[in-house]
Specification:
- By secondary structure, this protein is mainly alpha-helical.
- 77% of the residues lie in helices and 0% in strands.
- α1 runs parallel beside α4, α3 runs antiparallel to α4 and α4 packs antiparallel against α5.
- The longest helix has 29 residues.
Length: 134
């Protein structure tokens, strides 16, 4: 994923995270409270926004990265974006009354979040320099 694409994705996810947080706190609050799903909605918003900010930081770092690290950063960006869709998306759906089977999607998103953070670790992992010849 290019730096520009990561920035756009961070902006879209940040915007939608704030909008969904406000929507849940105001327009949907009574419905969520009646279902007992306010905490589920809040968890979805929290992970949504944390990974939006992480994408923004990743876009800033990506300009200074070598090719291998840049590829890992792009893969981390895709992983986090898909994680928001699967993890937060399934929680939003559950909070609004989707069938309980929807909860089977949530761990897929969690694994995608973990995969993205593992890729960030790999970006920082450096091989020791080779011994000079001779």
């Amino acid at each position: 994923m290019s730096r520009g694409c990561i920035l756009i994705t961070a902006g879209v996810l940040g915007f939608t995270g704030i909008a969904l947080g406000a929507f849940g706190a105001h327009a949907l609050h009574a419905a969520l409270a009646a279902r007992g799903t306010v905490a589920i909605w809040q968890t979805a918003v929290s992970y949504h926004l944390v990974h939006s900010v992480a994408l923004l930081a990743l876009a800033g770092w990506r300009t200074d990265l070598a090719d291998r690290a840049a590829r890992l950063a792009g893969a981390a960006a895709w992983s986090w974006t898909a994680g928001v869709v699967f993890f937060s998306g399934s929680l939003y759906a559950l909070a609004l009354g989707a069938p309980a089977v929807t909860g089977l999607i949530t761990p897929v998103g969690g694994v995608l979040f973990l995969a993205g953070w593992s890729l960030v670790i790999a970006m920082g992992w450096r091989r020791p320099p080779a011994a000079p010849p001779g």
